[in-house]
Amino acid sequence: MEEEDQQKVADLVKELVIRLVSPESHPPIPNSSDLQSSLRYAIRLLSSRLTPSVAPDAAAIAESTKRRLATEGKSSQALTFADLYTKFASKTGPGSVNNKWAVLYLLKIISEDRKNVNSQLDSSVLLPNLDFNDAELGNESRVLGVRGNKDKGWSNGVLLVSKDPENLREIAFREFVNLVKEENEVSEEALVRDVLYACQGIDGNYVKFDTNADGYVLSELIKVPRATRIMVRKLCELGWLFRKVKGYISESMDGFPSEDVGTIGQAFCAALQDELSDYYKLLAVLEAQAMNPIPLVSETASSGNYLSMRRLSVWFAEPMVKMRLMAVLVDKCRVLRGGAMAGAIHMHAQHGDPLVHEFMGRLLRRVCSPLFEMVRSWVLEGELEDVFAEFFIVGQPVKAESLWREGYMLHAGMLPSFISQSLAQRILRTGKSINFLRVCCEDRGWADAATEAAAAAGTTTRRWGLGYGETDALELLVDGAAKRVDKHLLNVIYNQYKFKEHCLAIKRYLLLGQGDFVQYLMDIVGPELSEPANTISSFQLAGLLETAIRSSNAQYDDRDILDRLKVKMMPHETGDRGWDVFSLEYDARVPLDTVFTESVMTKYLRIFNFLWKLRRVEHALIGAWKTMKPNCITSRSFMKLQNAVKLQLLSTLRRCQVLWDEMNHFVSNFQYYIMFEVLEVSWSNFLNEMEVAKDLDDLLAAHEKYLHSIVEKSLLGERSQTLYNSLFALFDLILKFRSHADRLSEGINELQARTMESSVPSRDKSKTKKRVNDKSSEPGSWISDGRKALTQRAGEFLRNMGQDLDAVAKEYSSLLEDFISKLPMQQHVDLKFLLFRLDFTEFYSQLRPSK
């Protein structure tokens, strides 16, 4: 059947040649040499690989022909052609023409040859049956045509442009083939196959991997042109890159434990493997094309699916870009893991090439999927799903009181570059808030807040709801979750755990803001605290504390608050009194101990000790004033003393009263400054900041600022140590003055008792003598002496007391001057205001220049 088809084709070709070559009036001789030559030439043309330079589109050629006819004004012919083409194109099956576009193209070329008037050719130059009418060309064209027939190589009406009667072209082809075989020991098809093998990491027959050269090379023993060797080396670069990427994947997934790779590393390897899968598909297509033979000369090659070295370089252009990028990422990420790996890959995504940008985006979506799942789980559930330590948030086991400050922290090394520092801080705080509510507050209301946040952000709480490139959605989710969870947390702290009430209780009891309670407590514990510290019972002091609570307005406070107030005895040394070691403490339980940490309570203890010392000094001056009341020297018994002794007594009392006034002025103003300018102002600012706090960090910062303000303004800061030492020297001197005032009071009482004894009638002397008998037995007592000795002893006592008071006054003036002189050097403006209060009349300012 095939032989019949071939014979039929040959007959049709012969008939076509006869019709084209011979005119209708002169039938051709069947075996003439011209006819046989034209037939052989036609068969050579049909069997050659020459193809037209147009796309094989029959519809386009038909449309072009129809449009040309219409443009020339031949509308009827255009319609006729369109109808004929429709019938021609619709005919299928046996007897129809398969290659319709070639037939149309042939007819189009023939028509163009007939219309080519500008070529100045006559009918003898063209095919006889396609000649123009004499009227169209004229006689002149015939003459020119006959003369040009011999010059231009025309023969028998056929243009001999591509006709090679001596087969020179075929001879040249054969010589070229022989030359190629001499220069190449290996055919191009074999080299293409070896290159494809090398691109899969497999050694071929001629192209093998050389460890010394670290790449695939063509053996020097094989004779090939230098250009071919260079081409092979360039193409095999893809195989070297593939080997690197494939080795990293195998090493990471098989050789390393999963702890060293992590979920993000595994996702990176999986993404690379997916890209290699597409690469394998491309190689499969290329291998199929490599099975087709390569034409000898590219100029005569058809567009068949063969694969040459040059075509392979074109095919490898895009895979080479991707493979190079993957190799760079492999080198960069070899020592990285977790968020650091995702950040390093993200840096290479900042590229202007759309191909690279799209490739990196697809890769990063796979790589960052575990990271974004960790973020979602942490923000919405408070769960730190980081088995391999890849997340930029790390947790560590701590006590409940340290959970907020030390339980979770940012790991800067694992923070990817596409997540900003501020966003990372918000992510950290949101998860911390959920964990704080769950662990410390035992609250589950955060779950509803997280669900509302996810709904507001347009995402869901399901897994894998976020991905790379959705930074805006991530920020919206984090902001919504942080806002709702933090608000719920503050509500729990304020309402359920009564944070404000506990802060107020600490202010009233540890900062001595409850005046009646502090005064009563100092009155009843004073005698106990005057004893040596090692003889004082803390249980007895606890009972006195409870008595002070019940005897003051503190009894109306919440019982839970009062139960947290306890007595604390600080470590003491030999010689310490109870005043030196007594303090109060407040038991801040979970979750309040997050705010009132051990270090914070230590600061409160320092402030309490300072305020307690100030109140003790005030209490001492009040006690001294009670013994120095004016009615104690108006008694008649002093009227019987000698004038000299009486004047000396009044002088001493006046000196003591003046010194008391000076000390009381200083203590009163300083206490006013502490209670109102320091404590009340700081408390008011703290309340204002507490109202505007948006999260627990803001609340902690506000409380830290409140406490820091009190410490700095109360001279307890590091920069105020010299002023603090001067102040406590003044306090110690005032307490020393109190002891002198007590001695003076006791001496005056003894003098008054002796004077009364001397003025009692004789019948009552026995009673008086019996009443003062105990005192008279004491060594150095005045009562055992006579009136003269009494006067002498009284004068000596008053003289000594006067000297002691003068020494105290002199030392007090020196210390006070030193204290006031240091106040202007303080940086805090409130301390400068203290100077204004102490030296309001500029009394001390006028004293300093005079000295």
Automatic annotation (TrEMBL):
GO terms for biological process: cytoplasmic microtubule organization; meiotic cell cycle; microtubule nucleation; mitotic cell cycle; spindle assembly. Residues 755-783 are annotated as: Disordered. It comes from the Eukaryota. GO terms for molecular function: gamma-tubulin binding; microtubule minus-end binding. Residues 192-495 form the Gamma tubulin complex component protein N-terminal domain. Residues 501-844 form the Gamma tubulin complex component C-terminal domain. This is Gamma-tubulin complex component.
